[in-house]
Amino acid sequence: MATIKSFEVDRWSEKDEKGRVKHIGMLKMGEVFEMLKEHLLSKDMLPDEYFLISKNDWNEDWELPDYDYAICIPNFGGSEGIYLDISLVYDDEQKQRRHMRFVTGKTLEESADAFLKMARIAAECSLMLNGHGSRYRKSDVDVSLNPAQTLYLTDLLEKKFVNSMDPNDRDMLSGLLKQFVCVSCVPVMAVCRQEDNLFSLWLHDMPDVRLDALILGSFVQKGKLEDLMESLPVDGGQHLCLIREEKTGEYSLHTCDAGKFYHSVHGQEGRRLFGTKEEIIHEVKSQGGK
């Protein structure tokens, strides 16, 4: 469990004879900006395009206003990229509510991943600027992986640990893997020829990164579903054969080495059906219509 100490942006007097202190001002704007920038840099959160102090209406050597709170908001801007706008809300000498632009950050990317990353940066800035020196406990661990890293870690965990786990531990790991930010699961159908006229159909939700890797490394056949089913050899599951319906109405059969992408634990997930060629074909078509 980590403890996060927010920025102490207020300046206080020394204690008097009764142990009391007085608020005597705020830190300088430039000083707090550098504190925030260094903090984000240490967390690998600094926006990749720029992170700049706003200088339109004030000087960085001036003190911060005695603000009530900081607003930190990610936004899609007028040009490419995503912006982070930080404003300080305070009352001026005439007791009028003011919003002072403090910092602007920007990333060139425009994806959902980039927006969520900027939102996470905004949350970090809000915590540091609004805490006024308070300490906060943080027990959760933030992990953000790209698709290649996710596939590598998923395969590593499954190959080395999953097959030796008891069912409860296996369910826990399966749930954890599904929470990876950049992973979504898609329904797949895999067919296998057990005997001459005995087929199996495996219905399962597979991580999209694994499916992409499987499709890339597979042998592909296209045609009528009946012909593709008839072409299957009797191999007892040595190959993983995915059936996919194309936009043209035809089907594609993607065949790969089961040992590369399919571990024994997967056979305990999803749903497996057995039947004749005609029965499996009927089930495949009914699943495609859902």
Structure, briefly:
The protein is α+β, with helices and mostly antiparallel strands and 290 residues long. It has helices at residues 29-42, 112-130, 147-160, 167-177, 208-216, 225-231, 258-261, 277-288, and strands at residues 2-5, 10-12, 23-26, 50-53, 69-76, 82-91, 97-107, 135-138, 185-195, 198-207, 219-223, 239-245, 251-257, 271-275.
Defining traits:
290 residues; alpha+beta; 4-stranded antiparallel sheet; 6-stranded antiparallel sheet; 31% helix; 14 strands; single chain; elongated
Summarize the biggest pleated sheet.
Answer: 6 strands, antiparallel
- What is the tally of helical segments? 8
Q: Which regions have little confidence, pLDDT < 50, spanning 5+ residues? A: none
SS strand fraction: 25-35%
Radius of gyration: 29 Å
- Our measurement of the CA-to-CA distance between the termini, rounded to an integer number of angstroms, reads 45 Å
Overall, the morphology is elongated
List the secondary-structure elements in sequence, H or E: EEEHEEEEHEHHEEHEHEEHEH
What is the total tally of β strands?
A: 14
Overall pLDDT score = 82
- Helical content (DSSP H or I, runs of 4+): 25-40%
Biggest sheet, strands in spatial order?
A: 11-13-12-9-10-14
Structural class: alpha+beta
Model description:
- There is one protein chain.
- The protein has 290 residues and is α+β, with helices and mostly antiparallel strands.
- The protein is 31% helix and 32% strand.
- It has eight helices and 14 strands.
- The protein is elongated.
